Amino acid sequence: MARNVEFNEATVIQKAMEVFWKKGYNATSLRDLTDAMQINSSSLYNTIGDKQELFVRCVQHYTDIRKQDWNKRLSSKRSPLSVLIDYIHEAVNVIINGEDSCMAVKSAFEVATNDERVKQILIADDQRSYQFLYDLIKKAMDKGEISNEEDPALLADYFNSTWTGWYESYILHKDPVKIKRMAEYFIKQLTK
Amino acid sequence: MARNVEFNEATVIQKAMEVFWKKGYNATSLRDLTDAMQINSSSLYNTIGDKQELFVRCVQHYTDIRKQDWNKRLSSKRSPLSVLIDYIHEAVNVIINGEDSCMAVKSAFEVATNDERVKQILIADDQRSYQFLYDLIKKAMDKGEISNEEDPALLADYFNSTWTGWYESYILHKDPVKIKRMAEYFIKQLTK
DNA sequence: TTAATTCTGAAACACTTGTTTTAGAATAAA
DNA sequence: TTTATTCTAAAACAAGTGTTTCAGAATTAA
Questions:
Q1: Residues near A110 by Cβ (< 8 Å), separated by ≥ 6?
Q2: Per the domain annotation, does B139 fall within a domain?
Q3: Structural domain count, chain B
Q4: N or C: which end of chain B has fewer CB within 10 A?
Q5: Protein-to-nucleotide distance from the CA of B6 to the C1' of C27, whole angstroms
Q6: What is the pLDDT along chain B (192 residues), one digit of tens a residue?
Q7: Which residues 150-169 of chain B have a CB within 8 Å of chain A?
Q8: Domain that holds residue B20
């Protein structure tokens, strides 16, 4: 028997996420957040909680989106190898067209060592990313699309950690060709 | 005709670097810094400058140390391939024994997009890292220690960006075996 | 309509931030 | 020793930080 929350929580988390994503956790102030979210700090503290809690929700939201993408790709009827190669190409596009690098990577380096909850979310995200690669590589091997000489778990691990360096490279050099060449070499290794 | 600065600048920069390295730029306060450096903020501002300037010097110092290490390794009389493999093994040891990841990587993601000077220092550092790898790979190819089928520039670029992902992996999983396995695969690719 | 409840906005909170001021101690050259 | 200069320590600075308070507006169910 009382009024309801005026704002849509999902919308507001999305807005906050964009600010955190761009500026990082420590460089983002509560004013930055409430300005973007268009809510008063009292509403924020009444519903979501403090800055840390909000950040946790934002990272969770960020990884949820990735999760959906991986699931969608995994349920594709197309050949495992083509799904994998498409994914690599789209990952390259995200790197060279996105403005703010990857929030998961940035948060791993800036926050994960100090915030156990953020760390756990990123571990789960990394595990899903690994599983996505592992499933495709394994299926591609079983189908004979790629050589099965190498351990698929090792390949998945190795490739899973490769993207991060591409983000760093793009921050420093802003060179799309460099990223594309590395991606082609990456694919070549996989398919030979 | 006046007194001299009491503290040793190199010592003080080293101390500041350690704090920035561990906590990151934004999470480090001036008090954190002056406590570690054991100097008053007025002395800091009189000699070095503000927080940004201090950070720039610290990143410069960090990359200077790496530069020395690369030069030392490049002047080795041993075979290029063995120098390279040694370097990879020691890089792995740094990752799994170090407590605070890599300051260059952390700074690339946290600061490089907002501070042009830091970015330029990191670009120069990255260039030296690339050149180090390129020189060894090229020499190893010329000597016939490794296959020269692949473009050494591409290999150097690719390998240069690989380490970053290993740092992220180690932050999340703290799994030395995982890093070691990736390094062995890395070497295997190089030598086959 | 009433009553109970929960939300919102603005202001205030205490504390921390990066930086500057100031008074005086220290020191090198004359 | 004097003098000119530059250092240092402590305090003060204004602005910004994350968070809380509180009065009142809003809303739902009775």
A1: A24, A25, A26, B24, B27, B106, B109, B110
A2: yes
A3: 1
A4: N
A5: 11
A6: 566 887 899 999 999 999 999 999 999 999 999 999 999 999 999 999 999 999 999 999 999 999 999 999 999 999 999 999 999 999 999 999 999 999 999 999 999 999 999 999 999 999 999 999 999 999 999 999 999 999 999 999 999 999 999 999 999 999 999 999 999 999 999 887
A7: 150, 154, 157-158, 160-169
A8: 9-191
